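User:
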Amino acid sequence: MSALVTQQLELRPVTFEIATAILEGRRRTDIEALVKAEMPWTWPGRTLVEQVFRASLDAVRADPETRLWGDRLMVTREAPPRVVGSVIFHGRPDANGRCEISYGVEETNQNRGYATEAMTAVLAWALAQPECSVIEATTTSWHKASARLLEKVGMKLVGKRQHERDEEVLVYEIRREPLP
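Assistant: Predicted structure:
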């Protein structure tokens, strides 16, 4: 999987080695050497790793091509390159072509258009893959900025459901356009 390039970002694939280093909690400098970019001091925090990656190291090791399908780090194109966030799928699309996506931007880099650029590019990439026809994202009802972003990138609100942390989430999705 190659990097995707936007106006401000290079969306670099999360490799097995990078995912392992992050999930093992290795030193920041070790992760920076793998990523070839400066990592934020506060990212990824343990909470973000647990929420966004939703993966154990065992799951990544067992099937990295499935678990890390489409996962990308947001790296600035300006020098020096810095990791400002990530776009993470929760695995390869299922037998019905459906997958789930999450994103996060480190707090000091928010409101710069990074999430919009990254999500737009990654959604387009994923929907161009033959095995992917529907992408789902969830957000809490109180997270208005996230809901706005999901709508801005073309996702539609399709319902609500209970999240595993026992809170209600809004469910958004985008579908591949049918062929004419």
